[in-house]
Amino acid sequence: MAVELIGYRYSVYLRIARVVLEEKSVAFTHVEVDPFAGVPDWYLGLHPFGRVPVLRHGAFTIHETAAIARYVDAAFGGESLVPLEARAAGRMQQVIGIVDSYGYRPMVRQVFAHAVFRPREGAAGAPEEIDAGLEASARVLAALEGLAGDAWLVGERVSLADLHLGPMMAYFTAAPQGAAMLAGYPKLSAWWGRMRARPAMVASDPGLP
Ligand SMILES: N[C@@H](CCC(=O)N[C@@H](CS)C(=O)NCC(=O)O)C(=O)O
Fold first, then answer.
1. Residues spanned by the domain of 101
2. 106 and 169 housed in the same domain
3. What pTM was computed for the model?
4. Looking at 41, 75, 109, which one is the last position of a domain?
């Protein structure tokens, strides 16, 4: 059954899904849909909220990146990316919740978008958005620093928590202000050094516009 990943190539959420597919060695094709340019009607049939990504596996389609990641982990072979032990599984979901609820907007939509993405596209970034994003990101990094394990975010093995944060950290640290802030968090800095070198992160790097 063919696997199709539909979404915008620079989307951080598309990259999370892609990293999971790469980690599980699942072959897939990418179909470009840019939600910021307006999604076509056929796409709204797959995702009523018009966000990206959507994963299609044969006749099965699913949206919401954390759900896509759980599906891919369970549906395909290879090492599981979900810990079995109750507390570790809870921590993994907690990290994903923090990243989605409190990290995405400041780290990506404020710091990265205004310090890196917009200027590269020839548009002005808003300094007040960068400042507000950095302030909110500091709370996120502090919370994650407190939860992080010595090797990976949850225990000794890589999990979906690492794969959820990785693409957001890549964008956050593409901004010099983000990279400088991360340096103040030793566990997260060491984690990022390991995470960014994983083949799945390298293979899924969309570059910058
Ligand atoms: N809850 C969604 C969030 C996905 C999301 O926000 N994706 C962004 C791109 S990184 C998007 O589609 N943004 C379009 C918009 O905000 O209109 C998920 O987990 O997949």
1. 86-199
2. yes
3. 0.98
4. 75
